């Protein structure tokens, strides 16, 4: 019997009363793993209302108790790490090693949430005027909402709800309907860690559910990761309803290859950064910019890509898995064809990729283009597949200008042995996350995930100190006490309970 994915409302896993169900399929086989509901409006309303009620007591919970909940949770996540990775791999198609990385990067953020006491400290100035002190404190917002994508069903939910809840909020999670099994397992473990009922709600669905959460009067903050079009809608709708919004959107990430770089490092790193995870990540390197004589390495990069073989999640030799669904595959194949039709040289073509034993998988092999112009769709659009574009320029200045003209600003990297070139690049590039001899510069949780321009809509970014600012409000107190009111006498005592 096909599993029906439940909702989590008020601490209980409940079956939806909806009449609309969507299949959750294995991308390598098209096997239906489960049916996920599109929650009814009443169910979404109940989730928000329950979270609102739970907030009244949770906001009064000591910060130490909140930190200890996160300590217990990160311990359980580590204990179930491989189990989570296997579940994730089956519903996303990721290789087991890739899935383990997805889970682990989420665990790192939960570990960071354990430091919530030090992250939440305010500021104090004594005697801002005569015998008047001023200090600031942070307080939670209420019911926060997270809308997460298919490509990181463990990491990105763990970017959001642990930090929000550690700050004293409650949370409603709307995970991707394409792979909801992993987020539900995260929720089960959160309950097992001792989370009080109502702290975390999970509802499923598509646009109607999202819009209800975006416009609800009791959801002051929205976190989102996904495509550009949806990100723009989330940001506009949320801010139109006077909410805080952080919306992480698309990308077109460039790696600049200087002629003084280590050739072996360049070739090895481009291969993994461009087609790893099937290119289905917002920090994938989709454009390699070869400067000067470095263009001579392009054939060797192609040869390295050609050796990367896609396969099923439990194939230890597979470099990456299938795309998430047939529609994603058809979109990538269509863009590859558009590149060919526009006159780009397809020097490695993965359009006809076949994986033995998995004839129904959403396979696209490693693909590489050369002689691409900036007006072509394969350069303009985020392909979100295992496709690398090679561009050639004569100088670092030309490379910087090229990247700064691109509307996206999520991540970029430069490979060089020159400290001066690296310094110039990191200073002048208009991109939020820069790698120097590091291909995918995703920051660790003590920093923040800092996309720029069309890759991010909002003011405060995910995890790190900026997440605490996003999920809290600052209150400033100015206080004066009159010494004439000090009680006197031999019986003055202070009792601590």
Could you characterize the architecture of this molecule?
- This protein is an alpha/beta fold.
- It folds into two domains: 3-250 and 451-479, Aldehyde Dehydrogenase, Chain A, domain 1; 253-407 and 411-436, Aldehyde Dehydrogenase, Chain A, domain 2 (3-Layer(aba) Sandwich).
- It is built from 16 helices and 23 strands.
- The protein has helices at residues 41-58, 63-79, 81-92, 96-113, 116-119, 155-166, 181-192, 207-215, 228-240, 263-275, 298-306, 326-341, 377-380, 396-405, 419-428, 464-470, and strands spanning 3-4, 7-9, 12-14, 21-25, 32-37, 124-129, 132-140, 143-147, 170-174, 200-202, 221-225, 244-248, 253-257, 285-291, 345-348, 367-370, 387-393, 408-409, 411-415, 433-436, 452-453, 456-457, 472-480.
- The strands form six sheets. It has a seven-stranded mixed sheet with strand order 15-16-17-14-13-19-20, with helices on both faces.
- Helix 1 packs across helix 8 (207-215), helix 3 packs across helix 4 (96-113) and helix 10 (263-275) packs across helix 11 (298-306).
- The longest helix is centred in the first third of the chain and has 18 residues, at 41-58.
- The chain starts with a strand and ends in a 17-residue tail after the last strand.
- It is an enzyme of class 1 (oxidoreductase).
- Residues 41-90 form a coiled coil.
- Keywords: Coiled coil, NAD, Oxidoreductase.
- One of its GO terms (biological process) is thymine catabolic process.
